[in-house]
Amino acid sequence: MNRRRIATVMISILLPSFAHAANPFLDAASDKPVAAKFQGGEWGDEIQQDEISLLTARVVTTRLAKMPWGAIFKIEFTDLESRAPQKREIRPDYFIVTDDRIVLLNEEDNESAVKKISALDKPPEFEPGDIYGITAGKFSHEDGLWKTTISLKGDLCVYDSSHPSGHFKKMIWKKGVGLVEYASGSGARADGFRLKRQK
Description:
Helices cover about 10% and strands about 50% of the residues. It is mainly beta. It has a twelve-stranded antiparallel beta sheet, covered by helices on one side.
């Protein structure tokens, strides 16, 4: 092997690679929206104590952008139905996805942020508190009294964040499927919900 070929091989090995390997917990074959039925319950001050009202939703996952290093997804909760007096609204979440991370996009104008980030030639820097999924190992983070852990259990990635006041957020991702559970609540069962993907 001549010197030029050896140098070329060495450079290709040493240069950082941003080739996107799909994230097993959140990926899509195309930009076509994928919908799934979720069902669960909700609770709150307007719902009788110790009662959980049935809650259903259609959850739509859409890939908004694909880059050499990853993708950006939007997860929307539509057609929410329950018997609770106050109709629940769940805001959409936007996620930046690389081969080893699922990261919440948490900007004032997420739609504009999607355009800016999708034009980057490498992933932006991520804040630890915005990481919502991993593909290997374990992850933990504390922000004041908020404690967050992300763990892998078989084919599941479990995001669990809580505050001593009773506030919490939990998301479960499944390999080859995507989001399969989403729950959120505020202190002492003042308000909250839990939704699980139906087969």
